[in-house]
Amino acid sequence: MAPPRLAKKRKDVAESDESDDGLAGTALEGVLSDDEDNDSGSESDPNSEDFNDPDDDDIGKDFDATSVSSADDDESKPNYKVVKDANGNERYEYAEIDPVYDSDDSDANEKGNTIGNIPLSFYDSYPHIGYDINGKKIMRPATGDALDALLETIEIPKGWTGLTDPQTGKPLELTREQLELLRRLQTSQIPEENYDPYPDLIPYFTSIEEKMPLSSAPEPKRRFLPSKHEAKRIAKLVRAIKEGRILPYKPPEEREREKGEEEEVHYDIWANEEAQERHIMHIAAPKLAPPGYDLSYNPPPEYLPTQEEKEAWEKMDPEEREKEYLPAKFDALRKVPGYGEFVKERFERSLDLYLAPRVRKNRLNIDPNSLLPKLPSPEELKPFPTVCQAIFKGHEGRVRTVSFSPDGEWIASGGDDGTVRVWSLNGHQEWVARISTEEPVQVVRWRPNKDTFILAAVAGEDLFFAVPPLVSDALEKASRDVIDLGFGHATNGAVPMTADGAKKEPPAKWSRPGSKLEAAGVLLKATVRASIKTLSWHRRGDFLCTVSPTGQRSSVAIHTLSKHLSQIPFRRLPGLAQAAHFHPSRPYFFVATQRMIRCYDLQRQELVKILQPGARWISGFDVHPGGDNLIVGSYDRRLLWHDLDLSTRPYKTMRFHTEAVRAVRYHRALPLFADASDDGSLQIFHGKVVSDLMENATIVPVKMLKGHKIVSKLGVLDVDWHPRHPWCISAGADGTCRLWA
Amino acid sequence: MPRIKKKGQAGAAKNYVTRNQAIRKLQITLPDFRKLCIWKGIYPREPRSKKKVSKSSTNSTTFYYAKDIQYLLHEPLLQKFRDQKSLEKKISKALGRGDVTDAARLEGNAARPEKTGKPRYTLDHVIRERYPTFIDALRDLDDCLSMLFLFANLPSTSSVPAKMIARCERLTLEFQHYLIASHSLTKSFLSIKGIYYQANIKGEDVLWLVPYKFNQRIVGDVDFRIMGTFVEFYMTLLSFVNFKLYTSLGLKYPPKFDQLKDENAAELGAFTLEGLTLVNEEQQKQIEDHKPDPKVQAAVNKVLKQIDSKAANGDDADDTVEVEGEEGNDTIDKFEPAAPGGDVLPQPSNIGGSQGSLFSNCTFYLSRETPRQPLEFILKAFGCKRVGWDAVLGDGAFTTNELDPAITHQIVDRPPVQNAVEAETEGDDNQTSQKLGANRRVPGRVYLQPQWVWDSVNDGELKEPHLYAPGTSLPPHLSPFVKAMPGAYDPTMPLEDQEPEREALEAEDDDEEVTAEGMDIAEDDDAEDDDAENDDFEGVSEDEEEEADGSDDEDAERQRELEAELAGSSVKSKSISKKAKAKEDKLKALSKKSRDDAEELERAKGMLSKKKRKLYEQMIYTNTKKNAADEKLRAKRRRLEKEGKRAKA
């Protein structure tokens, strides 16, 4: 194959050379080439790769011979020419390189246009259509002008296709055979015309009858019996057909149609229904609420929203709206528009049905008032104080404490001005003594015996005992005797103390308060280590206890009046002591710390009980005269009733005050108790305690007494009851005491 | 020693499973699980303590009852889902291999309910399980009907194929036919959302909502796959319910369906009930009879035209008389307690025969602007046999001739046109075109607005037609579903009967203010109130104060009298002031009473335990909210009434 290819290449070169020379005469050349085509058209295209005619090869051989000879010459001569270029300079023009080897490179493009796979139209504005392997321009073959085109239409050359060969740019011409071949390929026929793909089978083996058997075995019996296996299979098919599992073939369209027309089966699904108990956990879906009046297309006018309501509704976030619609009125049914949210609402309902957790909620459909306890009417529980009977004015600054004398004739009070005053019930001030100049009077308490008339008052660390000169001489004398009785014992009491701890300081110093006070009626003074907050008498009047919260170890002290002796019962207490009281009938002693109330047996000297009122900070407490109940007031606004028989937790908790409870007090004879609070009010309760163990106390709030003014967040500071009558006296931060009856 | 109990082995931890656990246990996908839950009626639960239930550290939100999931485990549908899933897998595999023919063959086996509207499975057994008795099914029919009526009016989508929608429409129409045949529709209500219907089927009240015939607006976040799942279930349910209902009436199910009529928008008319004995045939005969020959018609029209002008008013009156005559029949005995103390029993209501034949003596004609479907349904359900309408409203009318002399009532929903003269001139060609001019009225029939039908149905009697004549402003349309609660606001009752004393007094006071001296009285009143309160603070008894007040006033009055005598003029202002004073006193007494009550309440409230107090406060909160709403309504109505009065004056 090598020589002809070589030849062709050379021929190409020759041709291109030719065109190079005659640039000006392209049109002419076009005609010439056309002529050539016409000449060789009947046979084949000389340039086409596919069909190389034998003639071509001959011509190539001729060329071959000449080129070989020229190659021989090259060795002696220089293979370039010196020519002048446009500027008159020398230019070396090399001759064609002639590869003299026998190239087997079949990939090399023999034809020459090296532009690759780009459309020829890129070269439309150039005279050439690409470059050959040597980098020479391949000039555009001449195309005919208008007249030529006309001529061509008149006589269509044989094999004319109207196409252009993309490789050469020349018109592509195909022979009849080629066209026929293309047609067959396009119609996917076999390219060869007379090829028979299905020739008759020649039965090579069956046509030839063998003379000898291949096997000498006798014919098996099964060849003569019907097959059981086949019978089985046939029976299976028959069964399938009978049962309708195998159906005659139907085209898919028909099958679809039949399926579509298939009637639904209707039957009574509840033919043999029986009620079933639903599972206990089953909760039926709640039904939607039926529509109300406001959903009407023509509602009563009062259901229509006003302009403001409408705006408020529109402004609100759709999730927060109480109703998802605005009531609207239409004067005719034809004007009612479609409801825009219909699909959404239905969708949300279906979401609720399958997504919302269902919880059974017990809705109490009762009158809320039935929850309220049936309290007896206050009218039935009379007597109790209802109105302010008298106002005691005189103190400067707050009145901190107030107390009824044991005979109920006198009222003692003490306040921030350092005075102790005694009043008669009509509001007249009968006696006054300034026991301290800088310290306020914290507590005043009468000795609870009727045969004496002794008032104990506390200012700072000092405890004073006074006998106001208001009663009969005999009584006054008796009182003075009781106070003075201890002076004999004082030394007696002090000696063991010193002996005990060498130089131990006594818990209190008992002395005369000074001549000025003595003249006023204040006869005795005891000074303890820390300032006293509360004071409480034992029922016999010989002992009294004081609590000074800041006193640490000596915060609670028990004083004996007859001996002028002070004792400190507790070495240490958990928490700050707030108040202390004696039990009214038994040798018990109650001490309230911030959170708890401890009950001690003084005789056995042991802890009996701890009460836990649950309050954060106890302000004060009082023991019921019966001794089994206790009320506790706390700074966290609660009043707690403890039944000592029941539990350590409160029996009842009452929250009626908006501010802290300052003081609580039982009536000594009547079933009443009262509390005083910083919100300026007193509350009177009816608290009946029955001796029967089976019955609990009945507590009924009966009256709220208001009148005290609130001064710098303090209202009522103390309260006390008349020993017999249902009267109470209160001390207010506004500088007044009020008697309520 | 007993065994140590481990955490999470018993109790709530065992009773609940999270959604993901359930899915894993059932081995299905979330959408399949959703479907299963919807069909089987499984819903999440709210455990008492989520902490005890959830075993994982992240807090799950949905818990299912473990028994429910166990119950799902035996569901035959699960197998269908799995089959479908494996088939899909095969198809996708075949497509992945490029084996198109295999994929096509497999695709042929697959059920595509979104295309055909028919799934491979049936939900019959689910229906039977969920509703062991027919009554159970009826109890759950509310949502079913609302959903199907909605879908009957929706366009088809990819998840809701057209066949499904057609089936919805058919089922709902069949159901409506049952209601018509059994007269079991009891109430209906025109709301802004749509039309509510209530039927009493076998003693169960079923309430559903039908949208107005408009294109439904579909908001973006509506998942039609979920709705489609529900619809699939509901369709099965309703078809069984329909079957049961039809057979209980002795009717054949499904009824005969005329495709041609349906294409002409006959809707209800496209069905023919079979198996029922007399009623239908009779109806048919009447329809056949009722082809008026043109000659008679012309004669009738001529006569009608002559009496047209004369008898326009008289006929209306006649009709009302007739109506009144009918009313006499259906009065019911009312059981009123003779002595207090007995239990209150439900009163006998007129649901039944008389209700079902409310419109039986009427022939209706619907103008073309009226909504034909609901009117046709409701009229037929209440015993009307002959309903005609304009031909544009679709097929299936008793008559499309507006001038038909048999028509007794015509439903009109357009305002009367003023130019009566023009109508007169057009009168001639009316006969040929069988249409009336804008304002022409055919004598001998009552013209009504559609609301009349609904109000009549809800009240169980034919309402006065003159209230509903075209062009008049209609009385308010009230919901028949609201049950009157004691103390709640009721728009049907006069205001005076339901307002509390205090409100009434205040209202009167307001009146006075407007008419008389302005704000003075009120101000005085307030001041006095304040005083009184202050007094109370000080603990001085209220009564004394009151007396003192009274005596003061008397003194002042006496003084005024004397002055008047001196001046020689009559004591005119006194009477007014006296009245005002009496009212004032009343108000004062009321306020004192309320104050006392409040004090009493406070006393009692303090004695409650914390738990009870919380409960009490909650109840009071809701009650006051309700009361406030009622009070607002009353105030609005009072104002409106006052404005109305003033407008009249």
TrEMBL record, chain A:
Family matches, as Pfam families: BOP1NT (PF08145), WD40 (PF00400)
Region ranges (Disordered): 1-107
SUPFAM superfamilies linked: WD40 repeat-like
Annotated Basic and acidic residues bias: 76-94
Record keywords, A-Z: Nucleus, Repeat, Ribosome biogenesis, rRNA processing, WD repeat
Gene3D superfamilies in the record: YVTN repeat-like/Quinoprotein amine dehydrogenase (2.130.10.10)
Domain BOP1 N-terminal: from-to ranges: 123-385
Biased composition (Acidic residues): 32-59, 95-107
HAMAP family: BOP1 (MF_03027)
Summary of subunit composition and partner proteins: Component of the NOP7 complex, composed of ERB1, NOP7 and YTM1. Within the NOP7 complex ERB1 appears to interact directly with NOP7 and YTM1. The NOP7 complex also associates with the 66S pre-ribosome.
Protein name: Ribosome biogenesis protein ERB1
TrEMBL record, chain B:
Bias (Acidic residues) ranges: 496-556
Bias (Low complexity) ranges: 565-574
Pfam families (alphabetical): BRCT (PF00533), Pescadillo_N (PF06732)
Region (Disordered) residue spans: 421-441, 472-606, 626-649
PROSITE patterns with a match to the protein in the record: BRCT
Keywords: Nucleus, Ribosome biogenesis, rRNA processing
Residue ranges, compositional bias (Basic and acidic residues): 582-605, 640-649
InterPro entries: BRCT_dom (IPR001357), BRCT_dom_sf (IPR036420), PES (IPR010613)
Domain BRCT, chain residue ranges per copy: 354-470
Subcellular location: Nucleus, Nucleolus; Nucleus, Nucleoplasm
Quaternary structure, from the entry: Component of the NOP7 complex, composed of ERB1, NOP7 and YTM1. Within the NOP7 complex ERB1 appears to interact directly with NOP7 and YTM1. The NOP7 complex also associates with the 66S pre-ribosome.
Function: Component of the NOP7 complex, which is required for maturation of the 25S and 5.8S ribosomal RNAs and formation of the 60S ribosome.
Family: Belongs to the pescadillo family.
PANTHER family: PESCADILLO - RELATED (PTHR12221), PESCADILLO HOMOLOG (PTHR12221:SF6)
UniProt protein name: Pescadillo homolog
Species annotation: Bionectria ochroleuca
Classification of source organism: Eukaryota, Fungi, Dikarya, Ascomycota, Pezizomycotina
Gene that produces this protein: NOP7
